[in-house]
Amino acid sequence: MRKRPIVLNIKTIATTSFFNIEEMDIEFSNGSKRIYERLKPPGNGAVLVIPMLDIETVLMIYEYSGGTDRYELTLTKGKIDGGETLIEAANRELIEEIGYGSNKLTFIKEMTIAPGYQSSITYIVLAQDLYKASAQGDEPEPLEIAAFKMSDLENLVYNEDLTEARSIAALYMARDVINNQ
Amino acid sequence: MRKRPIVLNIKTIATTSFFNIEEMDIEFSNGSKRIYERLKPPGNGAVLVIPMLDIETVLMIYEYSGGTDRYELTLTKGKIDGGETLIEAANRELIEEIGYGSNKLTFIKEMTIAPGYQSSITYIVLAQDLYKASAQGDEPEPLEIAAFKMSDLENLVYNEDLTEARSIAALYMARDVINNQ
């Protein structure tokens, strides 16, 4: 029933320091044609990490976010560097942003954020069995860390500082994984 | 503790048919300076709708997504048109994409998708008490509709066709809202 459209042509139409925009000529199986645009970043995708200080306590951060021009309550995330596995990237970001490493990193799910116009993939990783560790990241200012209880997740998701869909989805999925351990 | 950075300057650096990219000069309260880029679309944001055929059954769609160049299992979504409320937009998208309207639309949550570099807001709306209705949308091909049981959500989120973080987060939040009704 789902007969994949044909991508007749793809070309880059704009490039900035951070973004790369492609234009796609697409022909659907019913003959209709569309021109789509999408963000097509280089690189290996990103990780988002749910760090559990104990079975009940998740560590989150307040980070200034340019897109919304405000502090967002979010989970640790960052790009996967060349030559890194996603698990290595998750542990590195955790050490840089939260001040902990993890002895138990579990890949949970591959997510997209806006598949209609972005190719980006985020790998969701649960981090348990934490140990103290630190390293200099590329943050412009120290991140404020905040602890929340998973048992309060139903209320936490209504916190107005927590808006990022990936973080909300990851918290719910992590809770299910922990409950099934 | 969180002392908001100063945005010294914002300018548009690239515009295409679909995207508008801004560059921001930012000075953090500790004096460090950064140049950020962000997507700043015009308009009023988007709605994402969780349509419940009955207390247990959610209606989803398979939609070709240019960003990932594949069919994604997702919830109904679309932009809010000028002059529309978010509830009106939710009902219109539902009618166009799923073939149902709703007598009971409940706003649940305002979400962002990548607040670090996107200003976009998505309003999550639960749709219940559905009635049959149809209207022509702007889809290039008919959408395939698929029904899933909320009681199976823990498995559904591992479906490889379901990757979009907003849809996963919205399904979990809708389940909580329905359970509390």
UniProtKB/TrEMBL annotation, chains A, B:
Superkingdom classification of source: Bacteria
Residue span(s) of domain Nudix hydrolase: 39-175
Keyword entries, A-Z: Hydrolase
Signal peptide region: none
Keyword check for Hydrolase: yes
Cofactor(s) for this UniProt protein: Mg(2+)
Gene Ontology molecular function: hydrolase activity
Gene3D superfamilies per UniProt: Nucleoside Triphosphate Pyrophosphohydrolase (3.90.79.10)
InterPro entries recorded: NUDIX_hydrolase-like_dom_sf, NUDIX_hydrolase_CS, NUDIX_hydrolase_dom
Keyword Hydrolase among record annotations: yes
NCBIfam families: PRK11762.1
Name of the molecule in the record: NUDIX hydrolase
